[in-house]
Design brief:
The radius of gyration is 16 Å and the shape is globular. A 5-stranded mixed beta sheet has the order 2-1-3-4-5. With 184 residues, the protein is an alpha/beta fold. The protein has 7 helices and 5 strands. Bound molecules: zinc ion (ZN). The site of zinc ion has 6 residues, from helix 6.
Length: 184
């Protein structure tokens, strides 16, 4: 069941990148044939999305939405391509996940993202009632989990999101640093 869902997920993505996705799909199935994927495994996929965003000229941030160990949606930042200030990787993934599950609530879902979410994305995660957030690097310039604001644990809100951070943080911030260094 889990394997089938991954195949479908990658098959959909594969129409865009048929060669790389075939390799990805096979390696993913082989890798997780004998064990369950971990937070670190899923963060590697989020980092792949961030790299793909960089290649498209976008700020390299990637996100992945996972439900019952299945990847429901994945995206990099799309703000420039879509002329959409709200098209952060997390928002795109939330929209896609909600559409696929035909539900605006994503209770039980886990969001993986390479950088600490901003206030908009943290707010959207509250609206979607996601259960857990796993992110890579802290964002001292706008992070809304703990760096600048504490949206996900605010006492006035009645939904709490479990948070794990620091996973592949160095890789995530190195990607951002090299992206901005190249543009200077
Ligand atoms: Zn955001």
């Amino acid at each position: 069941m889990c394997e089938l869902s991954f195949s479908l997920n990658f098959a959909a993505f594969g129409s865009l990148f048929p060669h790389t996705i075939l390799v990805k799909q096979l390696s993913f199935r082989m890798l997780f044939f004998f064990r369950m994927p971990t937070d670190l495994d899923f963060m590697q996929f989020a980092l792949d999305e961030a790299r793909a965003a960089a290649a498209a000229g976008e700020v390299p941030i990637g996100a992945l939405l996972v439900c019952e160990n299945k990847i429901i949606a994945q995206s990099g930042n799309r703000t420039i391509r879509d002329n959409d200030p709200t098209a952060h990787a997390e928002i795109v993934a939330l929209r896609e996940g909600s559409r696929l599950l035909s539900n605006y609530r994503l209770s039980g879902a886990t969001m993986y993202v390479t950088l600490e979410p901003c206030a908009m994305c943290a707010g959207a995660m509250i609206q979607a009632r996601i259960a857990k957030l796993v992110y890579g690097a802290d964002d001292p310039r706008g992070g809304a989990v703990r760096s600048c604001f504490e949206v996900l644990s605010h006492p006035r809100l009645n939904h709490r999101v479990e948070v794990a951070s620091g996973i592949l943080a160095e890789e995530s911030s190195a990607l951002l640093q090299s992206f901005f260094a190249a543009r200077r």
